[in-house]
Design a protein that fits this description.
111 residues, mainly alpha, Chromosomal Replication Initiator Protein Dnaa, Chain: A
Length: 111
């Protein structure tokens, strides 16, 4: 599930409508799934924070009228959050483990 646009195209300065829309969706998901500010997201995308703000607001507004876009945003955000939650779960186990062996055992890994 995604926009079908490669990561390197989203990171580029391309202004093609398809690529720009995928970039705007990625910005919106970054805003929804992270505690990052608009300036922080802007730095990641090589854009000005005011551009990021207006693009995110536009995508959010369009999602209110477009069920497919709303579903795409929900799915991408859930996927992003699941990845973050997975990392948090591993970190929590690492914090609880008293040794590497115990940590690996908690993860069900073989030594």
């Amino acid at each position: 599930m995604g926009t079908g646009v490669p990561r390197n195209a989203i990171d580029s300065n391309a202004r093609d409508h398809i690529i720009a829309r995928a970039r705007h969706i990625a910005m919106t998901v970054a805003r929804r799934a992270t505690p990052c500010s608009y300036p922080a997201i802007a730095r990641q995308f090589g854009r000005d924070h005011s551009t990021v703000y207006t693009r995110i607001k536009r995508i959010e507004s369009q999602a209110m009228d477009d069920a497919d876009l709303a579903e795409l945003l929900e799915n991408l955000t859930a996927t992003a959050l699941a990845g973050a939650n997975w990392k948090d779960a591993v970190r929590a186990k690492l914090d609880k483990a008293e040794s590497l062996a115990e940590f690996l055992e908690m993860l069900g890994a073989r030594q």
